[in-house]
Amino acid sequence: MEALQRAAQALASARNVLAITGAGISAESGIPTFRGAGGLWEGFRAEELATPEAFGRDPELVWRWYRWRRDICSKAAPNPAHVALVELESRFEEFLLATQNVDGLHPRAGSRKLIEIHGNIDTARCTKCSAILPLDDASEIPGSQVPSCPRCTGRMRPHILWFGETYWPGVLDKAFAAASRANAVLVIGTSAQVWPPAQIALQAQKSGATLIDVNPQPTEISAAADVFLQGKAGDLVPALLHACDRVCGEGIRTS
Ligand SMILES: [Zn+2]
């Protein structure tokens, strides 16, 4: 596969690599997007629950929804694409994985050089003192599903970027900084409909990185990519890792 070979060459010669993942990689682990008509829960759409207004009106309802989602995520397992990304992180001088996914599959697979730009379903944030804690460490308000802050007893909310909210300070800066230094950027399973992650990828390309897109369906990113690998992330990311190893092996033998 010629495209795979070209992507492997770009990775093998890169010192700094940025990877960006979206819902597609999680879908292969059986996690639904929770959006649109198929994502209805008790008659609600995600767009009606994942907002600060919904939380202000009925925090109990929003938490019940997140606990249901968290249960689905906890039963899902990382797939071979998640595992291959863990392998990749140790092979470059600099590596960053920026994910849009909140399901926690990347940290569970073992990724450490990671920023979860939309938050994480296993964490909660205090609405009073802004402490961010693992949800399991938060105490529950008696008779309610709403957790309370162990530091200040304030009400806690899911540490998730909701519709209508802006990114937390510093999060995008870190991703854009990595983009400006990257020699290769790997985009996996993102529809490119969520713009900041797509912009980060295009910024990296503008700064000289080879843009590699892995997606079952072509997107706007695929059209702009230097290499488009069409198919499942669970097949293609491990294949890319192995092809990269072969290229490096050949490099060692011939040098
Ligand atoms: Zn607090």
Could you describe the 3D structure shown?
- This protein is of the alpha/beta class.
- The chain has 2 domains: 160 residues, TPP-binding domain (Rossmann fold); 77 residues, SIR2/SIRT2 'Small Domain' (2-Layer Sandwich).
- It contains 11 helices and 11 strands.
- A 6-stranded parallel β-sheet has the order 3-2-1-9-10-11, with helices on both faces.
- Helix 7 links the parallel strand 2 and strand 3.
- Helix 6 packs parallel to helix 11.
- It is elongated and about 65 Å long.
- Bound molecules: zinc ion.
- The site of zinc ion has 8 residues, from loops.
- The site of zinc ion (ZN) has 8 residues, from loops.
Give descriptors for this structure.
11 helices; Rossmann fold; binds zinc ion; SIR2/SIRT2 'Small Domain'; alpha/beta; three-stranded antiparallel β-sheet; six-stranded parallel β-sheet; 255 residues; 20% strand
Oligomer: single chain
Structure class:
alpha/beta
Overall pLDDT metric: 92
Q: Tell me the CATH superfamily of the largest domain.
A: TPP-binding domain
CATH topology title of the largest domain: Rossmann fold
Low-confidence stretches: none
Amino- and carboxy-terminal Cα gap: 25 Å
Overall domain count: 2
